[in-house]
Each structure stands twice: as C-alpha cells, then as structure tokens.
Amino acid sequence: MDYSITEQQEMLKRVARDFFIKELPKSLVEALADDPRGHSPDLWNKMANLGWMGLIIPEEYCGFGGNFLDLVVLLEEAGRACLPGPFFSTAVSGALTIIEAGNEQQKQELLPKIACGDTITTLALAEPDATVSPDSLNVEAKPINGEYVVTGTKLFVPDAHIAHYLICVARTDRGVTLFLVDTNTKGLGLTLLPTISGDKQCEVIFNKVMLKPGNILGDLNRGWEYMEKVLPKVTIAICAQMLGGAQRVLEMTVDYAKDRVQFGKAIGSQQAVQHHCANMLTDVEGMRYSAYKAAWLLNEGLPCSKEVSIAKAWANEAFYRVAALGHQCHGAIAFQRDHSMYLYSQRASNWSFYFGDTAYHERIVAREIGL
C-alpha cells in the first residue's frame, strides 16, 4: 500500500489551495452562511472552469476522468477553506450516485451537465431518525396506474433548495429504489433548516409526488445495492474535508502559540500548550492515515467496510478534540466573530453527523471484528 499522493495530485493540491486563498476569503464564507441560498454562482463557475465539477466523471461524459484519490486530495483543501455551497452534494454524492446507479441514457443526460456546472444535484437519504440503513427508510413509493406515488419526509438534505434534481432513496414493494426527482415537481415541499454552521440543509416533504418509471435511477428495487457502493466513498469524502479543517486548526494554533507573548515569553514555551499542540497533531495524523488508507482501498476496489468506519469514527471525535484544544490555546480571541476558529469548531460539530455518527460506525467496526 502506498498512501503518498502522486505528482499530479500534489499539483492539484497546490492549485486548489492557491485558488481557495484567493477566491474564498473568510468574509465570503461568512456571507454565504448568512445568505439563504448559500451559493455563489461566480465561485461555482470558476470551480467548474477548473474541471472540478467533473473531476471524477469519466471522460466519455465530458468529465476530467480522475480517480477517487484525486477527489480526496481536492476535498481536503475544500475542508481547509470551509468551502460552502453545493459542491459536495453535486460533484461528490450526486455524481458518484449517478455514475454507480444510472443507466447509459441517464449518464449521458446528467453527467455532462454536472461536469460543466449547469446542474446541481443532491442526495436525499436521511430521515427523521437520522440513521443510515435500509430498515430506517419510511419514504415510500407505491405503484399506481403505471406511475409511482412517493410519500414521506427526508431530513438534512443538503442544498435541496437550490438543486435542480434530488436523488431520493425510497422504499418500494421489494426493496429500495432510487428516484431522480425534479425539484419543481408538484407535491414536493422544501424547507430550509437552521444549522449551527450556516450550511444549507433542508426538510423535503413528498406529498403524494407522482413519478414516472423513467424517474427511476438504475433498476427498480436495487437502490440499496447502489448505495452500499456509494456510501463508503461519500463517507471518506467527508472525512477528507474534516481532515483539511483539522489541519488548518492545528496550523493556526501553532502559529499563534509561537507569536503570542505572555509574561515575557511565547505561550508555546509552556508545557501545557506544547502538550495540547502535540495531542492535536496526533489526532490530525490519525485522521490522515485512516482516511487515506480507506481511500486507497476504495480506489483499488478492495473490501474496506471496517477501514471506512474506523476513519469516520476517528474523524468525528478527533476533529472535535482538535477544535476544542485550538480554542483553549487561543483563549477568548478565538470566540470573537472576526477570528476564523469558530468556523472550524462549527464544522467539527456538524460534519460528525454526516453519513453516520460515531456510535453508528463503532457498531460497524465491532461487527467487522466479530462482536
């Protein structure tokens, strides 16, 4: 196993970091958090022009044709910059699901539009109990007169209010089916939910939404087979963002500890602060190793259920610890609005619930080791 990134990926990393430093200042992150849309078309178009919307989309569908590790490298930089907007919901969870589940016609129609930035998509998976399993699905699609009537509620659907299409994971008569739903469809209700980090998550209510068989993404009743292949990738994708955020917190804290002078010497000379920073580095490196190990296994198509859940369970707790220690080292200044630290502590709390909390992934790890 070789977890080191390639020369091309190193170039992608540098370009992404320079881009986000220039195009995504803290003021824009804050402005988009306060904006009900949470989306900058200008930033979106610039990212699309760099080919990032189609980074993992095959070349035959007008994409860049990159692999999953390329995406992880880019997302680490996105997390470092606290990238807002529908990039993850479209270019990651949306694109990965369509690539995995879509038939040839659906791929030809949707993937080029995603790659060029013309279409925003999102995955509507979670429901009020917030678990990630087929048994938890209560949104139901019943066949009536050759169509499907979809009823129920999805929660925490990212960017649904600005998406062109939702990918709804619904229960059908003999399993689970994915439905591609135009957000202008009659009977679909979208309500923006308040969140601590200002990211845009929605409650989506399906009130007897009528869908044709052509809205089925892939094959009827095979939806969970597709999701079992998509979920490990989107889980590690969010781990990559968390890693980038934690790395930035560590860097800000070390720089502050070197520069902040109290009682005639830098606070970094104090043993307590040194230990805090050492513990932060330990957590960050654990996040890096576990995330990239799982990403490499996914990229190679190897079994890695245990490794994916180890990475997410660790990232959930480690990012939170790193952010908390960063606040302790900075003191009161980090709680002020004009400091960046709060952006990361908010995301540490928020992202820990994406695609399974710690308890959920610990149960998977326990199962994988035979308990």
| Residue share in helix | 40-55%
State the strand order across the main sheet: 1-4-5-8
Q: Which radius of gyration do the C-alpha atoms yield?
A: 21 Å
The largest pleated sheet is described as: 4 strands, mixed
Q: Report the order of strands and helices.
A: HHHHHHEEEEEEEEHEEHHHH
Amount of beta strand = 15-25%
The helix-and-strand class reads alpha+beta
Number of strands: 10
**Distance between the terminal alpha carbons, to the nearest Å?**
27 Å
Instruction: Work out the helix count.
Output: 11
Query: What is the average of the pLDDT values?
Result: 95
- Low-pLDDT ranges: none
Described by the principal axes of the CA atoms, the overall outline is globular
Summarize the structure.
The protein is an alpha+beta fold and 371 residues long.
Please characterize this protein's 3D structure.
There is one protein chain. This protein has a four-stranded mixed sheet with strand order 1-4-5-8, with helices on one face. The chain is globular. 47% of the residues are buried. Helix 5 runs antiparallel to helix 6 and helix 9 (305-330) packs antiparallel against helix 11. By secondary structure, the chain is of the alpha+beta class. It has helices at residues 7-23, 26-34, 41-49, 68-80, 87-101, 104-115, 223-259, 271-299, 305-330, 341-351, 358-368; strands at residues 121-124, 140-144, 147-158, 165-172, 175-182, 188-193, 201-211, 216-217, 261-262, 265-266.
